[in-house]
Amino acid sequence: MPRPTKAQFTALIVASMMFMEQLDGTILATALPSIANSLHVDTVATSVALTSYIIGLAIFIPASGALADRLGSRSVLMVAICIFVTSSLFCAQANSLPFLACMRTLQGIGGALMVPIGRLVIIRSTPRDQLVRTMTWMMLPATLGPLLGPVVGGFITTWFSWRWNFYLNIPIGLVGLGLTWRFIPQIREPSPAPFDLKGMVLAGGGLALLSVFAELFSHAEGSITLRVLMLGAGSLLMALYCIHAFRIPAPLLDFRLMRIPTFRISVLAGAASRVAVGSLPFLMPSFLQIGMGLNAAQSGLVTFTAPIGALITRPFVPAILRRWGFRKVLMFNGISAAVVFTLVASFRLPHALWLFSLILACAGAAQAIQFSAYNTIAYADVPASNMSAATSLYSTMQQIMLSAGICIAAGTLTVLGQIYGHTTPTLGDFSAGFLATGAVSLLAVPFAASLAPSAGASMSGNKR
User: Fold this and answer.
1) Among 27, 173, 245, 355, which lies 20 to 30 A Cα-Cα from 180?
2) Which residues, other chains included, contact 225 with Cβ-Cβ below 8 Å and sequence gap of 6+?
3) Which residues have CB under 8 Å from 30's CB, separation 6+?
4) Among residues 306, 99, 69, 88, which one has the least CA distance to residue 176?
5) What is the DSSP letter of 288?
6) Per-residue pLDDT of the chain in tens (464 residues, 90 and over written 9)
7) Angle between the 48-60 and 32-39 helix axes, to the nearest 10 degrees?
8) By C-alpha distance, which of 295, 290, 299, 297 is closest to 413?
9) Per the record, a Pfam family (predicted)?
10) Is the torsion defined by CA of 214, 118, 132, 304 positive or negative?
11) What phi and psi, each to the nearest 5 degrees, are found at residue 80?
12) Pick from 19, 8, 20, 23: which is nearest to 121 by CA?
């Protein structure tokens, strides 16, 4: 691969932040029993360490673009890294569950500001004809985070201590802080619109409640009454926000951007695809360990083939898009994702595990192409003045759809368990979960088909 340009180097810096944030978001799940033992609480109660992070993430993602417009992208990015690193240090030293939950919320706030603002910097500082290649560089390290998390978390917790899962963020964050100061440009709007505080309360509160509902639902925790209240209150706040957003000229999440065809189709088609991807961290480890009887180490090694497939494929994404264009690539990937999920659902242990690993590698390759394309074409026709609002809305929709994937997968297992009267999911239940989320991913195909054949041609270089 050729030496990275300045824009690609900036993308790698942002990708390192994404890697740290995504690794932290998944690394802790394997450490919950150890945390419970150390803090002398029930293991179920430690799930608050996951939900508190999601709350901080959900509240501040909508505000990320508006804050960057006012304070400058580099300044907000450096503050976000400082918040993330400092709260990681306090998490590592926590001696009570409430204190750990508070620090995890602060971590979520830092994570909410890092990723969308990093993406905004790349979009604003990169010429559109170079955006596909630059986005490919950005997604390279970030691909490893979600699937490396359980493997790394299990190793650190077993051989060291759960506290080192948090200490790991400190050197990565400090290096990122120095690189941000040196290489990330300071970009701000000269005359930003008034900050939408009411919108932040409504949208942030609604997203936080819906995210907590998704977390409780996916782990079958909390009473039915509590879950219904979370779902109802979150939906009500989001409905009130929608009414509010269409009454002011510059809302925090501007749904009027959905009038731009390439942005709308990328959001909607990407939503269907992200539902499937969001279900994988929930379904796959349980499918391999409970359904197929593998131990945690074997499960981690098998699932690690997915990011390997993604890493191998990503350098070829620009050439693929240049040859076939966004429309054909996204249509084909929407179909291939459903096929891969069907193959996963039909797999049984008597078959060789290398074959299953090959299927997962193909899944990783498809995701690499798919999300590089979605994350690029979304901004093909967005005016420069609306880039901050577009990144905020796009990042928020990503978070919602990833949570929705967990809900659909968990709901499928819950319903099947109630129908057949078993408390532990069976292999057939997991297969049904994969089929359900795979079917949702097929919805991306008609959305992608509605793209104009020339959509994003200035980015992909496709002249046909």
Assistant:
1) 27
2) none
3) 150, 153, 154, 157, 296
4) 88
5) I
6) 455 566 666 777 777 777 777 777 666 766 766 787 788 876 656 767 777 787 888 788 888 888 888 888 888 889 999 999 999 999 988 888 889 888 988 998 888 888 788 778 777 777 777 777 777 666 666 566 666 666 676 677 777 888 888 888 888 888 888 888 887 878 777 777 788 889 889 988 888 888 788 777 766 667 788 888 988 999 999 999 999 988 888 888 888 999 999 999 999 998 888 888 878 777 877 788 777 777 666 776 777 787 788 878 878 888 888 888 889 989 988 888 888 888 888 888 766 778 888 888 888 888 888 888 888 888 888 887 788 888 888 888 887 887 777 778 877 887 888 788 777 778 888 888 889 888 888 899 999 899 888 887 877 776 66
7) 110
8) 290
9) MFS_1
10) negative
11) -60, -45
12) 8
Q: Which two tokens stand for residue 250?
A: 């510059």
Please report, as a single letter, which amino acid is at residue 119.
Answer: R
- 327, 333, 330: which is closest to 454 by C-alpha? 327
Tokens, residue 262: 């390439």
Secondary structure in 3-state letters for the chain: CCCCCHHHHHHHHHHHHHHHHHHHHHHCHHHHHHHHHHHCCCCHHHHHHHHHHHHHHHHHCCCHHHHHHHHCHHHHHHHHHHHHHHHHHHHHCCCCHHHHHHHHHHHHHHHHHHHHHHHHHHHHHCCHHHHHHHHHHHHHHHCCHHHHHHHHHHHHHHHCCCCHHHHCHHHHHHHHHHHHHHHCCCCCCCCCCCCCHHHHHHHHHHHHHHHHHHHHHHCCCCCHHHHHHHHHHHHHHHHHHHHHHCCCCCCCCCHHHHHCHHHHHHHHHHHHHHHHHHHHHHHHHHHHHHHCCCCHHHHHHHHCHHHHHHHHHHHHHHHHHHHHHHHHHHHHHHHHHHHHHHHHHHCCCCCCHHHHHHHHHHHHHHHHHHHHHHHHHCCCCCCHHHHHHHHHHHHHHHHHHHHHHHHHHHHHHHHHHHHHCCCCCCHHHHHHHHHHHHHHHCCHHHHHHCCCCCCCHHHHCCCC
- The pair of structure tokens assigned to 403 is 């949570």
Find the length of the chain.
Answer: 464
